[in-house]
Protein backbone atom coordinates (compact mmCIF):
# COMPACT_ATOMS: atom_id res chain seq x y z
CA UNK A 1 0.00 0.00 0.00
CA UNK A 2 1.42 3.37 -1.02
CA UNK A 3 2.05 5.93 1.72
CA UNK A 4 1.08 9.58 1.25
CA UNK A 5 2.38 12.37 3.50
CA UNK A 6 -0.08 15.27 3.81
CA UNK A 7 1.60 18.53 4.89
CA UNK A 8 -0.77 21.39 5.71
CA UNK A 9 -1.29 23.66 8.70
CA UNK A 10 -5.08 23.88 8.32
CA UNK A 11 -6.64 21.03 10.37
CA UNK A 12 -9.82 20.86 8.27
CA UNK A 13 -7.79 20.45 5.07
CA UNK A 14 -5.57 17.81 6.70
CA UNK A 15 -8.66 15.89 7.81
CA UNK A 16 -10.33 16.02 4.41
CA UNK A 17 -7.13 15.04 2.55
CA UNK A 18 -6.45 12.25 5.01
CA UNK A 19 -9.97 10.89 4.55
CA UNK A 20 -9.78 11.28 0.77
CA UNK A 21 -6.44 9.46 0.49
CA UNK A 22 -7.55 6.66 2.83
CA UNK A 23 -10.72 6.19 0.77
CA UNK A 24 -8.51 5.89 -2.31
CA UNK A 25 -6.59 3.08 -0.59
CA UNK A 26 -3.48 4.88 0.63
CA UNK A 27 -1.78 4.83 4.01
CA UNK A 28 -1.63 8.43 5.27
CA UNK A 29 0.80 10.34 7.49
CA UNK A 30 0.33 14.01 8.33
CA UNK A 31 2.53 16.95 9.30
CA UNK A 32 1.42 20.47 10.18
CA UNK A 33 4.68 22.23 9.33
CA UNK A 34 7.77 21.91 7.16
CA UNK A 35 10.18 20.88 9.92
CA UNK A 36 7.89 18.00 10.97
CA UNK A 37 7.43 17.02 7.32
CA UNK A 38 11.21 16.79 6.73
CA UNK A 39 11.63 14.75 9.93
CA UNK A 40 8.89 12.32 8.85
CA UNK A 41 10.44 11.93 5.37
CA UNK A 42 13.82 11.16 7.01
CA UNK A 43 12.29 8.66 9.44
CA UNK A 44 10.11 6.80 6.93
CA UNK A 45 10.01 8.15 3.36
CA UNK A 46 6.50 8.27 1.90
CA UNK A 47 5.69 7.30 -1.69
CA UNK A 48 4.23 10.75 -2.40
CA UNK A 49 3.86 14.12 -0.63
CA UNK A 50 0.93 16.55 -0.78
CA UNK A 51 2.68 19.76 0.28
CA UNK A 52 1.04 23.08 1.12
CA UNK A 53 3.08 26.18 0.21
CA UNK A 54 1.98 28.36 3.14
CA UNK A 55 3.32 26.68 6.26
CA UNK A 56 4.47 28.07 9.62
CA UNK A 57 8.25 28.23 9.94
CA UNK A 58 9.78 27.03 6.69
CA UNK A 59 7.57 27.23 3.60
CA UNK A 60 6.52 24.42 1.32
CA UNK A 61 8.93 25.81 -1.28
CA UNK A 62 11.79 25.42 1.24
CA UNK A 63 10.73 21.85 2.05
CA UNK A 64 10.57 21.06 -1.67
CA UNK A 65 13.99 22.58 -2.29
CA UNK A 66 15.60 20.70 0.60
CA UNK A 67 14.13 17.38 -0.52
CA UNK A 68 15.21 17.89 -4.13
CA UNK A 69 18.80 18.52 -3.00
CA UNK A 70 18.90 15.06 -1.42
CA UNK A 71 19.67 12.39 -4.04
CA UNK A 72 17.50 9.94 -2.04
CA UNK A 73 14.41 12.12 -2.54
CA UNK A 74 15.14 13.64 -5.94
CA UNK A 75 12.49 11.43 -7.56
CA UNK A 76 9.94 11.48 -4.71
CA UNK A 77 6.61 12.64 -6.23
CA UNK A 78 5.51 15.95 -4.70
CA UNK A 79 2.23 17.75 -5.43
CA UNK A 80 2.14 21.35 -4.22
CA UNK A 81 -1.11 22.65 -2.70
CA UNK A 82 -1.88 26.34 -2.56
CA UNK A 83 -4.72 28.74 -1.93
CA UNK A 84 -3.05 31.13 -4.35
CA UNK A 85 -3.44 30.12 -7.96
CA UNK A 86 -0.94 32.73 -9.12
CA UNK A 87 1.06 31.71 -12.14
CA UNK A 88 4.34 32.91 -10.59
CA UNK A 89 3.91 30.53 -7.64
CA UNK A 90 3.07 27.65 -9.94
CA UNK A 91 6.17 28.34 -12.03
CA UNK A 92 8.35 28.58 -8.91
CA UNK A 93 7.01 25.27 -7.58
CA UNK A 94 7.57 23.49 -10.88
CA UNK A 95 11.01 25.08 -11.29
CA UNK A 96 11.99 23.81 -7.83
CA UNK A 97 10.99 20.30 -8.86
CA UNK A 98 7.34 19.82 -7.90
CA UNK A 99 5.66 17.12 -9.99
CA UNK A 100 2.27 18.81 -10.01
CA UNK A 101 0.38 21.75 -8.61
CA UNK A 102 -3.15 21.95 -7.21
CA UNK A 103 -5.03 25.11 -6.25
CA UNK A 104 -7.44 25.07 -3.31
CA UNK A 105 -10.31 24.48 -3.35
CA UNK A 106 -9.55 21.45 -5.51
CA UNK A 107 -11.61 18.72 -7.10
CA UNK A 108 -11.23 15.67 -4.87
CA UNK A 109 -11.54 13.32 -7.84
CA UNK A 110 -8.92 15.19 -9.85
CA UNK A 111 -6.51 15.15 -6.90
CA UNK A 112 -6.92 11.40 -6.37
CA UNK A 113 -6.32 10.83 -10.09
CA UNK A 114 -3.12 12.95 -10.00
CA UNK A 115 -1.84 11.01 -6.98
CA UNK A 116 -2.63 7.65 -8.63
CA UNK A 117 -1.01 8.72 -11.92
CA UNK A 118 2.20 9.90 -10.22
CA UNK A 119 2.46 6.73 -8.14
CA UNK A 120 1.85 4.58 -11.24
CA UNK A 121 4.76 6.35 -13.01
CA UNK A 122 7.10 5.38 -10.21
CA UNK A 123 6.31 1.67 -10.33
UniProtKB/TrEMBL annotation:
One of its GO terms (molecular function) is phosphorelay response regulator activity. It comes from Candidatus Halomonas stercoripullorum. The keyword Ribosomal protein does not apply. This is Response regulator. Residues 3-119 form the Response regulatory domain. SMART domains: REC. GO terms for cellular component: cytosol; protein-DNA complex. The modification 4-aspartylphosphate is found at residue 52. The keyword DNA repair does not apply.
Amino acid sequence: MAKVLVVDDEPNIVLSLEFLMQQAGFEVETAEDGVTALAKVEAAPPDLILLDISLPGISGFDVLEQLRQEPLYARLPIIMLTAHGREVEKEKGLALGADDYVTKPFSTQALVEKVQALLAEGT
